[in-house]
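Q: Predict the bound structure with S-adenosylmethionine.
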Amino acid sequence: MSLYERIAEDYDELQAAALVRAARYVSELTRVFDAAGHTVDLGCGTGHTCRLLHDSGWTVTGVDRSAAMLAQARRRAPGCDFLQEDIENLAAPPTADGVVCFGDTLNHLVSDGAWQRTFGWAGEILADGGVLAFDVVTPHDHRDVWPHWLEVSELSGLSLIVRGDPSSNPRRARLLHTGFVEDRSSGLWTRFEEAVEHVSHDAETVVAWLSEAGFEEVSYRDGDTLEDATPESTRWFFLARLPRKAGTGLK
Ligand SMILES: C[S@@+](CC[C@H](N)C(=O)[O-])C[C@H]1O[C@@H](n2cnc3c(N)ncnc32)[C@H](O)[C@@H]1O
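A: Predicted complex:
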């Protein structure tokens, strides 16, 4: 069972900061458009971003491979469509005006070429002037912060210890999760161990891949402050836009 299957019910409480960030990213995305359109939310998790976009008048398709996360998303955002699929093997992604991928979901795509392939098909399904928005953890965070990571969360029915793995390759960083989860019907607790693996790439490399995928206006900022990125940035927020033609509804 994957980590997200185990923690889906508690995800929003565990990741409250990520949900605040995602709300800011949604504002940045919607500011680019004159009118609402259709967005595909990759790794939509519990549907927080889907719900925000839907409440702003957008139609939304959320994609996630975790059934438990999607169950939360369907409850939170009943007006959206959801696909239980792997981002790396999406059968027939719908056309869209926006593609978003928040909460460092892209870092979870660790196979060689996965980011380029994702940018490639995002470029193909987006309409003229369409926008891809995503946030990613930086190589600095993986190299210098993750190895020292220690976080303990005590929620009702879940205790979680998250530690950095100092032996992991900084290009393939790992957070080790030890959890104790309560079965709410029997009251019995089960222990689990799960490693979450991330990859990160230099900003220049990501910009080059976006441009190869046809995006012509590409910018990135510090993902926490939304100010200019610095060498200390632990997260970047990227906006990339396809070339615009007249009458696309974009500013
Ligand atoms: C850190 S959570 C982010 C959730 C949400 N975007 C947010 O901002 O709160 C990562 C999500 O991506 C999903 N995910 C990771 N890799 C995936 C893949 N290859 N295909 C589909 N979903 C994936 C996980 O199931 C999880 O729900």
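A: Helices lie at 3-7, 11-14, 16-31, 48-55, 67-76, 114-125, 139-145, 203-212.
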